[in-house]
Structures are given as structure tokens and as C-alpha cells.
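During the second year of the project, the team shifted from modelling isolated chains to modelling whole assemblies. The rationale, set out in the original proposal, was that interfaces cannot be judged from single-chain predictions alone. As a representative example for this report, we include one of the complexes processed in the last quarter. Its constituent sequences, exactly as entered into the pipeline, are reproduced here:
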Amino acid sequence: MIPELGQFALVLALLLAIAQGLLPIVGAWRGSAALMAVARPAAAGQGVFVFAAMAILIYAFATFDFSVAYVADNSNLALPWYYRVTAVWGAHEGSMLLWVTILNVWSVALAALSRHLPQPFVARVLGVLGLIGVGFLAFILFTSNPFVRELPMPADGGDLNPVLQDPGMTFHPPVLYMGYVGFSVAFAFSIAALLGGEMEQAWVRWARPWTNVAWAFLTMGIVAGSWWAYAELGWGGWWFWDPVENASFMPWLVGVALIHAQAVTEKRGSLPAWTVLLSLFAFSLSLLGTFLVRSGVLTSVHAFASDPRRGLYILGFLVVVIGGSLLLYAIRAPKVATGKPFAPLSRETGIMVANLLFTTAAAMVLLGTLFPLIGDALNLGRVSVGPPYFGFLFVLLMAPAVLLLPFGPYLRWGRAEGHQLTAMALRAGVAAVVCAVVAAFFAQGQLRAIAGVGGAVWVAAGTLAYVIKRWREMPRGRRYPAEMAGMLVAHAGVAIFLIGVMLSESLSVERDVRLAPGTSASIGGYDFRFDGVEETEGPNWRADEGIVTILHEGKSVGTMHPQKRTYSRGQVQTESAIDAGLFRDIYVALGEPMDPNDVQGAWALRLYHKPFVRWIWLGGLFMMAGGFFAAAERRFRAKKTAAADVPAAAPKESLA
Amino acid sequence: MNPTRKRRLAIVISVVVAAAIAVGLIVFALQRNMSYLFTPSQVQEGQATQYPTFRLGGMVKAGSIQRAADTLKVSFIVVDDAGAMPVEYTGILPDLFRDNQSVIATGRMDSGRFIASEVLAKHDENYMPKELKDAMAKAHENRRIDDKATQDATP
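Output from the structure prediction step:
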């Protein structure tokens, strides 16, 4: 009975979403306050029913209700409760429900926090979110219903993929979706602005905190996914240019461009059409990502076995959303005013160049990701594009961005002064060269490591110089407003990230070795002594657990316990052991016994020594924090900020 | 030409040059990193000879996995419905690697053997990558032979 209630809740949510999608938009068009007033209650109602459906699905998992096909497919009696909860989004149907749930989190938050905005505008924004909700709720109800019954009820269920039985599963998907789906809010703001013809700066100011928060969540989700792949998949890599990784990375790249373009539009009124276009792209790429993951058209580690109807539905939805929004853009965008003029040397130009680099990078990733489909359509055979394609072009595109980054804060709106730039470049350049020369003594001749240190110091020194300049020149309390603090923290994150990527990529030592108990292997100055395996057990698995003692200069540093788990349904899963440190990770994974009948004999082991690998995620977390800080800017929260009330160009020193 | 026109011309030329460089680099990078997927029977027909490295996809033949006594070298045979190809790999195989599992190996040919640098097996044992399924169906179609190997080749 209870699962039917879940389905019923989804049907009600769909009806409310239709009301939320149509009535307020019509109301805003006709000027009817009554119709516009439907938006908030409808959004709240849709939220209540979607949350109820989600709660019911979680309840079904918690109580082993195997009469629900989705529960029976993805959990069993031996699965611990915390993985039963995360199993909710472990496969297609539930992850779509998670998508809609998070869409409603955003809608409800927007409905609650938008009292200071004009009513027609809020009505349109919530209306657009309602229409997106209609699309996804209909998708769930018609093609991927998680509440379908399976009768007769099986005595026990299948199993959750062992890869997903990991703490990473609790936060990676929800956080990633917070980011993905969050771009729907920026999208809704843009569509609302196009519909209403409000192409003044005000709407961009309202959209900025939402976009920043969504981007920060997306950053956190990608960082979490990267860390999870590193820790759990036993590959020791942190990024694979896998289609599904790319699917989340493309909106991120466009998101970077978008949050910067929004700053230009808000502060100076320039590039409004470009800002609108970017927010359409960011959301379209989020949808495309969903399509790529769900339809199974691309070979990926994330691929779910799939149903062509679903792919077709999402493809249709994609065409409607992208086509419809671009059509609206084509009709409305040319009416836009163009803002204040700017000189070739100005912050506007700097941000435009960065925007071009980031959007080109997104286009490059898109081309590489879709190339197998293109190759198929053109009858080129079964082609895929290897990681070196992405690596080569991405580095090429991002190198100028890194080079230009420290200049950003020093560039003034409108027209920048050259002498400040050269002074900064001189200082940061000297610092970068000195550090690179010092690094050369430690880098074992690895050019990438030296370049990485140079680049990171260049960014860090340039950013630090600006921090000092503000400290000296501004009175207390006005030195680092939230928006600027966010920018500085995020830019510092780029420096940290650079160190992590370049040093770990060039200095890592990775070896697969064959070790008999008692023997040892040595990499990166550490000795790994293999002391055999023991049997151990978990709630629904048993494992061979290796004992590996790490020695550094003859002294024991620690003991590591990599596992080879066999789950109750026979799936095998490698659990690597990681000794994490700020300056290096030691990573041990068990391969297989050399003789399957003698587990006490020699084993294949994978040993990694990875310097500075944590800095990759640390840098990502800094960027995320930057996004959240910037969103907390007081100016965004000010009540009654009609565009005219606030001086359009905030004080000259103020920052994007 | 007046200054405005001159500036516009400069902008247009730089945009065109930048676009040309971008397209050139992308084509270059694509060409160097495109990797084709072939099944054993397609390789035996000689379709892969022009590619120094490619991906080989198929099923691991039951009972064909052999380990060296003192190194990490593994050899096994990858089959599709009409062909078979011996493969050599040195290193640790993925968790899901086993008899009758669909795998994709990246590597090159060396005197009749495929020397793999990477071996992938999919997460889900019921799931076969779409491109592999298509490639195997195509190889099957070309030959129109209905032999017993089909049983091995279905997951």
C-alpha cells in the first residue's frame, strides 16, 4: 500500500508542477496578480509531494519491501542500513527521483528567499522551474517509475553494485546533483528575463548568488567524485576523461565562464546577451550530461544497462529545452542594451578572454565526448577518443588562463592602468622563477613538475600581492567584502590545484609487483614488506586482507590493510589501503593471488607513491569555498535593490 | 582605411587566425588519439593492419587464462563468434576479469599476438558495452556463419 502512496504523491506533484509551470507565467503575461500568486504555494506543494515520494522510497528500502521491483533489484537482506539508504540513488529510477527532489529543494529555497524580488519576475522564474519539473516528473512516471511492483514478491533482493557500497555514495551523487540541477535556477532567471524583457542589470544581481552556490556545489560534487574514483576504484587515478566525468565537467567549465560573465553584466551592464547565452548552455549541458549517463549511448564506467525509450525521451526533452530557449533568445536577445564602453585593456576584456578560453575548453570536451557518436553517424567505425586528446588540448587552453589569472584583480573596470600590471607581473614573475629554479633541484628533471611549481607560484604570488595591496590601501572593514574574498580564495585554489596536478602527475611512482610473504619492494624511498594475507569479514562480504608494512629508512611508518572483498553475490571488489598525507599518499591495492588455490602464497600488489596528490582536491575545495563566499555578498541580499538605487559601478576598487 | 576599419579588420583577422589554429590543433589531437575497436575476427580479416594501436573487444575464452610462474605476465584468448586472438598482458587485471567476461583491451599486434597495455572489464556482469555489442553483431553479419562460438559470445 505504501509504495502506491509514493506513486500517488508523484502524480500529485506532476499536477502541481503543471499548475506551477503554466499559471504564473500566464499571470505575469496578463498582469494578473492572482495567477502569479499561485507560484509559491504550487512550488511548496510540489516540494511536499516529491519529498514524500522520496521518503516513501527510502522507507521501502529501509523495511526490505522487495515487492517493489527497484528495491528488490538494488538491495538485499544482508545490506547494512546505511547502504540501503544510499541504494535509493544507486540505479536509474531512484537517481531520477533524486534529480527531481533536488530540483524541488532549489524551487522551495527560491520561493522562500525571493520575497524582495518583483512579483512578475518571481512568477516567471518559478514557472520555468515548474516546467522543468513537469518534464522530469513525467519522465519518471512514464518511463522509470521506482514504485513498480514485482509480484510475486521475491524472498530476497539482488545486490547493490559493490563499487557503490562506499561512504562516497552518501554524498557524491546528491552534491553533484545539487550543482547540476542548480544551474536550472540560473537558467530560469535568464528565461524569465528574456520573457519579461527585463534586460537591465537587476536580474543578474538576483541570479548571481544562486549561480555561485550551484557552481560551488558542482565543484564539491566533482571533487568528491574524483576522490572516490581514486580511493575506491583501485586505479589510483583521479581523473579519467570518462564520458560521465566529462558530462559533469562541461557544465562546470561553462559555469566558470558564467559566474565571471555575470559579474561583468551586473557591475557594468556589458555582455548581457552573452551572460544569458551561457546560462542556457550551462543548463543544456547539465541535461545533456543526464542524457549521456542515462541513455547508455556511450561506453563508460558509469553506464547503466538501459532502455532506449528513456534515451529517446530525454533526447526529445533536450531538443525542446535547448531549441525552445535558443528560439526565445533569438527573438528577445537583440533588444538588449550594451552597457558601458570599455577599453581594450580593462577587466571586461580580461574576463571576455577567460570566457572564450573556458567555453572553448567546454566545446573541446564536448566534441571529444560525442565523437564516438559522430564517428558512428559518419560511418567511421567504432572510434573513441583517448585521454591524451583531452589532456593535450585542455592544458593548451588552460595555460593562457593561468598566465592571465593574476592580472584579473588588478584590471580596472572600463580602463586599466598598465604600470600596476607590470609591477605585479615583475614581482610574481620573479617569485615564480625563483621557486621554479629551487624546485628544479628536487624534481628529478621532470619539466612538468618545474612548470607546475612556476605556474602555481605565479598565480599564488599575484593573488597574494593583491591581498596585500588591499590591506594597505583600504580602511578596516572594507578590505575584503565577501564577493572579493570568494574570488581570492578561489584563485588561491587554482594555485593549490596546479601544484597537486603537476607534481602528482609527474613525480608519482606506480608499480605492479609480485610479492611472496616476507619479501618487499621499494618505491619512492619507501619499502613495502608484504606479510601475507588474513581472512576477514564484513556485514555482507568476506575478504582476503593483505598486511603490508611500510618502512622508511629502516623504520616502520605504518601497516596497511588492502582488501580483496567477495560480496555475498560473488562480486569481487578491491578495497585499496591509503596512507594519506599532505605531501604524499602511499597507496596499496591487492591484485590477485598468483595461484588461486594458494592464497597464502605470492600475490600481485599495486604500489603507488603519489606526492602532493591531496592538493588536487584541496584546490578544488578552495574553489568551492570561493563560490560560497562570493554568494554571501551583502549586496546580493539587500532588500529593494532596484537597479537605479545602487550606483551601477560600485567603488572603483570593488571586484568581480 | 580609417582607424575604425583598421581595428575591425585586425579583430576579424585575429579571430580567423585563432579559429584556424584551434581547428588545426583539434584535428591534429583527434587524429593522434582516435582509437578504433575491432573484434578478433575483424583483426584476422586484416581490418586493423593500418593502425599501430587499437582496441580489441570480445569475450575471454573459458579456460584460456594462464599466468607466468614468476612474473605478472598473463595470457588469455579473446574470442568473438568467429575469431580468436591470443592476448598478453603484464600487470593486475580488473576485478571483473574472468572466463566468459566481455573485455576491451588496448594495445598493439606483435607477431600474431595482441600485446595489451590496458585491459578493461565492465562493472556490471550483465552489461556489455554497446559499441562492443554492435561491433560483434557487425562481424557476425559480415560472415553469416552460425557456429557454436555464438554461445560463448553471448553474455
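The longest strand of chain B covers residues 102-110. Residues 143-155 of chain B have pLDDT under 50 and may be disordered.
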